[in-house]
Design a protein that fits this description.
Layout lengths: L2 H19 L27 H12 L9 E8 L4 E6 L6 E17 L5 E6 L3 E5 L5 E8 L4 E10 L3
Antiparallel strand pairs: 1-7, 2-6, 3-4, 3-5, 3-6, 3-7
């Protein structure tokens, strides 16, 4: 075998062994190049965004979408957060149900009021809105290092 061929073969073997040895359990598997999430956007170990979405949605769906009390709902990643403005019937009583599935906490703010801290443990928390304004702002922000999916639903309460 000639020297150039031997050098090329050695280079290929070294590159192959480096690739084979780099897939250990020291860290998360890199995401495909098209979606480069940061460490804070990765779902908790073993859970996909779809699984977290399902857990969060299940926690908030006490009122079926076909029920007349259902107003609207949504889901977003904790990193994206929720910034929603809903048009409501002024003066009516509403309930906002929020659940976060993942790790860390989120801050829920309704109409620029006091932020409420909520764990990302897939447990629903309800916020009653008495004498609702015509437009209701909902803001849900993830705390540093929080990750997962957050779901919310607005229901009209029957008096």
């Amino acid at each position: 075998m000639s020297r150039p061929c031997a050098a090329a073969l050695l280079s290929v073997m070294l590159a192959a062994s480096a690739v084979a040895c780099s897939g250990g359990t020291d860290g998360p598997t890199p995401a495909p190049a098209t979606s480069k999430p940061s460490a804070s956007t990765r779902p908790p170990a073993g859970e996909t965004d779809d699984a977290l979405t399902s857990r969060a949605r299940s926690a908030v769906s006490a009122v079926d979408i076909d029920d007349p009390a259902f107003v609207e709902s949504g889901v977003a990643s904790v990193d994206e957060g929720v910034h929603n403005r809903s048009v409501l019937t002024a003066g009516k009583l509403y309930e906002i149900v929020v659940a976060c599935a993942g790790t860390g906490t989120v801050q829920v703010t309704v109409n620029s009021g006091k932020a409420q801290v909520q764990d990302c443990d897939a447990q629903a928390a309800s916020y009653r809105i008495a004498q609702a304004p015509a437009e209701l702002d909902i803001s849900i922000e993830g705390a540093p290092k929080a990750s997962g999916m957050v779901a919310w639903q607005i229901n009209a309460e029957k008096r």
